[in-house]
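One-letter codes give the sequence; the integers encode the fold. A sample entry reads:
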Amino acid sequence: MSAILGVTGPVFALIGLGYLVARTGLFQPADFRALGRYVVMLALPALIFRAVTARDLGALVDPAYLAAYLGGSLAVLGLGYRWSRWRGLDGPASTFQAMGMSCANSGFIGYPMLLIALPALADRTLALNMIAENLVVLPLILVLAERSGGIGRTARRVATSPVVLALAAGLAVALSGLPVPAVLGQAVELVARSSAAVSLVVIGGALVGVARAAAGGRAAAVVAGKLLLHPLAVAAAFALLRVAGVPVDPAMAAAGVLLAATPAMGIYPILAAQYGQGGPAALAMLAMTVGSFFTLGGLLWWLGLAAG
């Protein structure tokens, strides 16, 4: 147990710190909005740019990892959407039920976790997940949302977001083969290092005040889908690749399953609110953040990443 807490403890301690300073009024909502804006506009883009440019593109690309992670994520997205429609939910509600089940918090929770559990793979798997999520999964979610009568300008906002632009810039630099100037690289490194701690504090502050949101039954389905079904689907995808004779790095597979087991990405309740689904998404976000303390601990034990 102490070994598991050594991995999960720092992450959830910072989330708890954010909750505490918000609950006591030490930080006001405007303060968390400013910190969140810093993370989204500067720190996370810097982290993504550094992760993509830290190695050559050939070393970054891992077809087996991308196939397994994307395959598991898209399977859960499709199942979540069809199940929600079968349960009688409309298009927007079904879309964001499915998003909550299939989009991991790779940058804000997964990356700090990997820095402790699998530090040698943290940057690489973060870059791969950002490629998969921002180039495939999120655009598909937007297509489903827009097809269901959502807001047309959302796609343009996401396409021009700092995260997507940083990913594109990092890929361009990696493809060009040009080195990042030392001064720029050091500046990016300093900003990127701040992303993990600040983002976790912001997540904790954002959890204050969402517990009384409606639609608890819907939130429970999202939580079960995200914390249980998503990592199981990604693990099954890696297993299928092995059966098919595709070489799979066990450590990369463990990292992918661990990332899939994190709560939904930070923009989930924000994006859902633009389509009238903010209440259920906020409640699901709270419940899965609390629940992941236990499920991630169990997964770390099962994967053998907290031994010793």
